[in-house]
Design brief:
The chain is about 30% helix and about 20% strand. It is α/β, with parallel strands linked by helices and about 220 residues long.
Amino acid sequence: MPKFKVVLTAGGTSRRFGSANKLFEDLNGKPVIKYSVDLFSEMGFEIVIPSHNSAMAEMQELFALYPNVKIIQGGLTRQQSVFRGLKECGDAEYVIIHDAARPLIKKETVQKTLDEVVDKKAVIVAVKTTDTIKTVDIHKKITSTPSRTNLINVQTPQVFEYQMILDAHARHQDKSFTDDACLIEESGLDVYYVEGDYSNIKITNQIDIAYAKILLESE
């Protein structure tokens, strides 16, 4: 089997969540970040966590007994943090990039990406858009309503051939993208998606914690 490593993004400040770091928030008796780390650990992967400076000590304490986890200093942006994490994965053939704030990722979903990426080189998880999406101008005037048929909501993990994503990050350091697939697209390369799960939510604010608890309890 090809060698996969995980870059688990944890470099944010949780500004929209409140005063506490959302990754350490209790979620049914376990910190949010531990869900992802435990899942990827059970799957046998080495994990690099680019952490915000303010969370380094707590992160190191939380995973002190995890020999497969390496905590590093994150960057000023998510993109910088991922790039720093990628540089720690030099002997990997493929890299799984996942948001630590998505604790409800399922093993089956991860496995779908692994099954596809060796052939496709760049594979992300997404779900079909269920809301109507409109584009607007700076005056809040609606300018168009694209068809939902070709729209998807992007999630993580996003999995890439290692050298491909490393080169894309190095090439576009002066730009700012909202996800790693954008860097591959900007490089003129193809990205594919596999069907994810609507329960794979990202913890952004307090209401997301409440929703995640309900989802966990319903499993």
